[in-house]
Amino acid sequence: SLSAGLDLPGRFLFATLTLMTLIAILVFIEEAVYIYRKIPSSKRAIIIWINAAAPVISTTSCIGMWVPRSTMFTDFTAGIFFAIVIHKFLMMMIKECGGQKVLLRHFENGRFTISTGPCCCCCPCLTRVPITRQTLFWLKLGTFQFAVLRPVLIFLSIVLWTNGNYVLYNLSPKGPALWISCFIGALTLFALWAVGIMFRKVRILLKSKNIIPKFALYQFIVILNQLQTTVINIFATQKIIPCAPPLSSTARGSYIAQQLLIMEMFLITVISRVVYRRKYHDLEPPECSSEEPVDKKQTP
């Protein structure tokens, strides 16, 4: 066990990070109770799922910090949960607009701008797509495929790992790790692209519902959980992060990534409590009442 060989500062750091994880869990539980009591049932489950992303990642990172051999399982657990949260965030934006029917009525003659990140931000010449039931289906499919296929690929990775064929840090073209990672990366980009397209269209409509800070928190989770961890693992694989016995370079890189994630997810959990709670139940009635007359006026 790594904790057995820690000096006093190391034990203090472990204790502090563990305490931050426990506080994040308690904050989430308190927020989940508030959401269950105050938020309409149609949105309740989705918002709880999204709020659970940061404390779940913090918990898996804390377990991986105390039990280094479980890192692969904890990372895969966090990855599966995160894939589901991306789909839930897209569905939350649709729910916040009043549902799919209300969204289609509000943007009856509108168009989606598909030249947005992370896939097509450098292609402003792309045509704008009309907002129809079919385009909404493709956007939802873009995130749903990630929520389904990523757990399947992670399960395949675990099966290959138990058989000795999958080595996480072996990026050789002959090994399955490189191809599975590239495929998961492509699925991730398509899912984030679908969320970006939807957010760009509804951000003005949902500004009163704090959608911009909510999207910012979601983006921070994406960057910290995916990009930051990937960069640290690449540095560790290339020996840029030196080894420190008894930790190898790759183990030390994973160790650093887990500690950073615990602190970052703790802050996001606390901020999410403020953003998702602030006058949330007071924003729904005015918007509904303001949309109904518009629909009546448009009816011939």
TrEMBL record:
Transmembrane segments: 12-34, 46-67, 73-91, 137-161, 176-195, 215-236, 256-276
Pfam family, one: Solute_trans_a
Keywords: Membrane, Transmembrane, Transmembrane helix
Main location: membrane
Membrane topology: Multi-pass membrane protein
Domain of life per record: Eukaryota
Key word Manganese present: no
GO cellular component assignments: membrane
Compartments where located: Membrane
Name this protein carries in UniProt: OSTA protein
Source organism (scientific name): Malurus elegans
UniProt gene name: Slc51a_1
